[in-house]
Amino acid sequence: MLPKARTGIDGLDEITGGGLPAGRPTLVCGSAGCGKTMLAMEFLVRGATQYGEPGVFMTFEENAAELTANVRSLGFDLDELAAAKMIALDHVHVERSEIEEAGDYDLEGLFIRLGHAIDTIGAKRVVLDTLEALFAGLPNHAILRAELRRLFRWLKDRGMTAIITGEKGDGNAITRHGLEEYVADCVIILDQRIKEQISTRRLRVLKYRGTAHGMNEYPFLIGEHGFSVLPITSLQLDHPVSAERVPTGIARLDEMLEGEGVFRASSVFVTGSAGTGKSSIAAKLVEAACQRGERALFFAYEESAAQIIRNMLSINIDLATWVKKGLLQIHSSRPTLYGLEQHLVMMHESVNAFRPTMVAVDPISNLTLAYDDADVNPTLMRLIDFLKQKQITAVFTSLTSEAMVEPMQENSQLGVSSLMDTWLLLRNVEYSGERNRTIFVLKSRGMAHSNQVREFVLSDAGIDLVDVHLSGDRVLTGRARIAQEEDERVALSTGHADHLRTLRQLESKQKTIEAQIAALQAESEAVHLAIGQESVRAADQQILAGTKRQPGGAGGTQRKPV
Amino acid sequence: MSEREPGDAPLASGHVPAYQLRLYVAGQTAKSLTAIANLHRICETHLAGQYSVEVIDLTKTPQLAAGDQILALPTLVRRLPEPIKKIIGDLANEERVLVGLDVQPGRRAAS
Question: How many CB pairs under 8 A join A and B?
Fold first, then answer.
């Protein structure tokens, strides 16, 4: 295993599998202003402060005072480190106009100076920035090349972990003067590209002898805390998942999502054309998080923080309170202010510093406007992965073009949407002189979500979702919906009256029948009574007839002689 | 610190020589010795009585290298008259040395 010296630079140690080759020189090359000096300086400063390895910075371009001032903005105090004998600065200045060549020479003076600086502080690390200045200062390149070869050999012999910076050459040349010829162990290329007036910086390990290393180009930036390279470490898709649900703050929207809202640490994508209420939904999610006592971070790329607070207040979302309570931070910046990677790193830094559980980005389409989709996707992927890793729920809004026909609107977000777990689609529906908003859940991974379109109403009472009404194949919203509702209500009440009337009619009919039944019953009873009376009368008559016959009979018996 | 070679720098007492030269070398290498010898010869030929030479061996005093921005060795520095001029090499090319020192050849001590 090749011994490696950690650079302490975010991401670079991951790409190189542990740092630069220890005791060997590494060539860092790139065009002017791409950050070579910063990388080299951070390598030294981190070495001195984190790994206890003192370092010598030999600068051929800027003088020590300039360099000290330049890196102070990154929080590196070279004066202090120099006083502690952890860093030695030596400015080598070669002025071609003061130099006359008269005979044979070598660069022993450079070796002596470097050796002296190394010995003074017991350096383990060396930076030579930029050796190529010597080519301008010394006319005899044959001597210079021979001496450079000797210098690299000498650095290796002394076991110095060194960074040698070099200017990018024209065309395919790695460096202008072919320094790569001497430094064979590790070559790192920095690149700065300007596209649409915005620059992004990238880093690539061109070669690293004897070790595996990341081959890709990695975006990097120089932020407030120094250099950071962004390796796509989380492409393994191994972040923890949560079954916990996070309410959206809009009860009816939660209802559409199994009544519980979205999963924690999932990504919510809200798309729609202008004025469909994307920001409002994002703000609602943020507010809901704050109401639960969680921290939320709002990245705004369209409006200033004050403007968002004012505008959201109009729909009864009071963000100012949460800002005051320290639960909410709103970061507003222009998308074109930095390169995309810079935005990403700013987000990383803010998230790491604030530790929110909810992050809103409003809108990501402003980032995509400024950049190619090809650039945005990996960047967004990194951001989403990063947030998932941190168990942060994220809401991204995206503006789609009104002019696009609807299926195309959905297509336009294809690349990004595959990264999203829940996709809410907002639409404007124009009908009978009104424009109204509708919302539906296009997808929501891992849950049975509603397939219905709802009308989305923003009022000074807040956000509400209302069932839409269908008239034929048309979705009715706004006044048409209200009219429809009224119609239905009226229709309903009319029906009710009919029903009551029928009921009354039936009741009275029943009463009539019951009365008739009662009359008949009474009649029947009367008949029954009559029958009874008749029988009694008949029996009485029989008794009477019997009595009349009896005296005659006795007479007859009496008539019988004994 | 620096080695002053008495015979090489004829300093008239109280008189500041017009040409103050400093020769940086690294040890007693062939290049160093050649440079020292060449410098003597050139100065004696063209600047007799008007110069002083200080020879500095950087292997002994490496901390002096930064002050005059020494990279190449040997380096001859013309400290006076201003502006500072540097001539690098073993001074084998006399003509180039004189151009570097801004001295007219054959001027001798006439001025």
Answer: 102
Q: Average pLDDT of A310-324?
A: 90
Cα(A36)–Cα(A27) distance, integer angstroms: 10
In the numeric block, which tokens belong to residue A157?
């012999």
Distance in Å from the first CA to the final CA of chain B: 33
Which of the four pLDDT bands, split at 50, 70 and 90, describes residue A557? very low
Please determine, for the modelled complex, whether the ipTM score is greater than 0.85.
no
- Tokens (6 digits) for A404: 């696009």
| Tokens 């952890």, located at residue | A86
Contact B35 A103 (CB under 8 A): yes
Residue-level pLDDT at A162: 93
Q: Are A348 and A386 in contact (CB under 8 A)?
A: yes
Give the separation between CA A27 and CA A296, rounded to whole angstroms. Answer: 43
Contact A18, A155 (CB under 8 A): no
Site from A56, A92, A98 to mutate, B interface, most B CB atoms within 10 angstroms = A98
Q: Give the 3-state DSSP-derived string for B11-52, with helices as H, strands as E and coil as C.
A: CCCCCCCCEEEEEEECCCCHHHHHHHHHHHHHHHHHCCCCEE
Please give the Cα distance from A287 to A295 (Å, whole number): 10
Query: Is residue B9 classed exposed, middle or buried when 0-12, 13-18 and 19+ CB atoms within 10 A define those classes?
Result: middle
Residue B106: strand, helix, or coil: coil
CB A11 within 8 A of CB A229: yes
Question: Cβ–Cβ of B65/A113 closer than 8 Å?
Answer: yes
pLDDT at site A64: 86
Q: Could you tell me the CA-to-CA distances from A108 to A26, A144, A532, B25, B105 in Å, in that order?
A: 22, 11, 154, 9, 30
Q: Do A112 and B58 touch (CB under 8 A)?
A: yes
CB contact under 8 A, A101 and B96: yes
Q: With beta carbons less than 8 A apart as the criterion, state whether A53 and A8 touch.
A: no
User: CA-based angle A70:A76:A80, to the nearest 5?
Assistant: 110
Tell me the three state secondary structure of residue A536. Answer: helix
Task: For chain B, list the domains and their CATH numbers.
Answer: 2-101 (3.40.30.10)
User: With pLDDT > 90 as the criterion, what percentage of chain B qualifies?
Assistant: 25
Q: Is A463 helix (H, G, I), strand (E, B) or coil?
A: strand
Res A271 pLDDT > 70? yes
**Within 10 A of B61 (CB to CB), how many other CB atoms are there?**
15
Q: Please give the average per-residue pLDDT across B95-101, as a whole number.
A: 87
Q: Which residues have a Cβ under 8 Å from the Cβ of A313 and sit 6 or more positions away?
A: A319, A320
The confidence score (pLDDT) of residue A473 equals: 66
Give the confidence band of A112 by pLDDT, cuts at 50, 70, 90: very high
> Mean pLDDT in chain A?
82
Distance from CA of A217 to the nearest CA of B (A): 37
DSSP strand pairing (B51-57 vs A474-476): unpaired
* Lowest pLDDT segment from A31-40, A108-117, A461-470, B66-75: A461-470
User: Measured between alpha carbons, how far is residue A217 from residues A192, A204, A213 in Å?
Assistant: 11, 5, 12
Tokens at B29, concatenated: 């290498």
Neighbours of A100 (CB within 10 A): 21
Question: CA B79: distance to chain centroid?
Answer: 9
Cβ burial of A416 (10 Å; 0-12, 13-18, 19+) is buried
Interval A389-414 mean pLDDT: 68
